[in-house]
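Sequence design from tokenized structure. All designs in this work follow the same two-part layout: the structure record, then the generated sequence. An example of the structure record is given first.
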């Protein structure tokens, strides 16, 4: 019952695509995710660069991918993989979860990443009380209110636009004098009148019951000021989830991402990796492509 050809850990865009491809090869496959399918992909407010859709939310696209995946493989949500043990039998890996143990000939790590935190005073205390890492989840509460978005990448500017569209008064705070985000997003935030504070770091988040202000430090002059705000959205990048990879002795690069070859193979035989946990471009379309390649590689290796 619990024996599989391919077990995919993580049901984000890459993991779901791997499941779709794996099923169509005729192998017996399982996707396991400790949360609901979609991972951080569920939080993407809107995407305008996923082929086939002019504009679609992460949640909507994930639901479409999930319904396609479960026609092709088993899916266990809200079940956490705690340990992967290499074995000497035909099924080379025993995958232990908080509910069961599964056996598989191959493993695809699609474990994704989580939000990087600022690690400043007040950040933990005001989580859910004005501090948020997810505009799609919490933006609704800030219509008509003042908020700051911390970060200068694509995610920060996309989410700032989403929050502005909900009616929030948004100020983006970035630590350098130029944004990392693509030019078209920079142009869009100017067009819709989002204010920006550059060369500034958030030193502290303050308030009583809820967030009331942030303490900012000018990185050039050192001047410290207090900026009143009702909410602090933080979008300063991601940290890859590599705990299981480390258990398997999978090699990581100096930034902590899994090193893979063109066939999504890691240094460990029969272990593949895809998506944001790997080195490379962090894009849905890339994760999906990697999912297709990994499922095909696993199939070829099982056949051989
Ligand atoms: P990112 O590109 O890594 O940008 C993180 C931003 O946070 C950077 O501007 C960085 O500043 C800033 N930052 C990092 N640590 C900080 C700290 N401690 N304090 C203050 N600021 C800090 O992350 P992302 O925007 O989440 O994007 C992740 C990946 O997904 C990227 O590859 C991105 O291109 C991709 N993505 C693409 C799209 C799209 O194509 N539409 C949308 C979303 C994300 P510095 O610039 O100074 O380093």
């Amino acid at each position: 019952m619990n024996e599989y050809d391919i077990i995919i850990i993580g049901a984000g865009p890459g993991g779901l695509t791997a499941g779709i491809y794996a099923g169509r090869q005729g192998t017996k496959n399982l996707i396991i995710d400790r949360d609901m399918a979609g991972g951080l992909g569920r939080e993407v407010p809107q995407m305008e660069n996923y082929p086939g859709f002019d504009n679609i939310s992460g949640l909507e696209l994930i639901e479409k991918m999930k319904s396609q995946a479960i026609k092709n493989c088993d899916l266990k949500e809200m079940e956490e993989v705690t340990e992967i043990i290499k074995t000497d039998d035909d099924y080379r890996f025993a995958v232990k979860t908080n509910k069961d143990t599964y056996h598989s000939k191959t493993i695809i790590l699609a474990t994704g990443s989580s939000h990087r935190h600022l690690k400043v005073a007040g950040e933990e205390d005001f989580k859910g009380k004005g501090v948020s890492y997810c505009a799609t989840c919490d933006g609704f509460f800030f219509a008509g209110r003042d908020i700051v978005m911390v970060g200068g990448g694509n995610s920060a500017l996309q989410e700032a636009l989403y929050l502005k569209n909900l009616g929030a008064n948004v100020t983006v705070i970035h630590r350098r004098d130029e944004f990392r985000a693509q030019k078209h997003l920079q142009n869009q935030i100017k067009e819709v009148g989002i204010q920006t504070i550059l060369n500034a770091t958030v030193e502290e988040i303050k308030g009583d019951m809820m967030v009331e202000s942030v303490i900012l430090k000018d990185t050039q002059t050192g001047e410290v000021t207090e900026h009143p705000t009702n909410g602090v959205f933080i979008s300063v990048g991601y940290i890859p989830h590599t705990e299981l990879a480390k258990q398997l002795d999978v090699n990581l690069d100096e930034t902590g991402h899994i090193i893979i070859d063109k066939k999504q193979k890691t240094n460990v035989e029969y272990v593949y990796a895809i998506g944001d946990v790997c080195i490379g471009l962090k894009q849905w379309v890339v994760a999906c492509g990697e999912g297709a390649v990994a499922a095909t590689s696993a199939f070829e290796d099982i056949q051989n």
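The helical segments are 13-24, 58-69, 135-138, 154-165, 183-191, 243-247, 284-303. We note this feature because it recurs in several other targets discussed in the main text.
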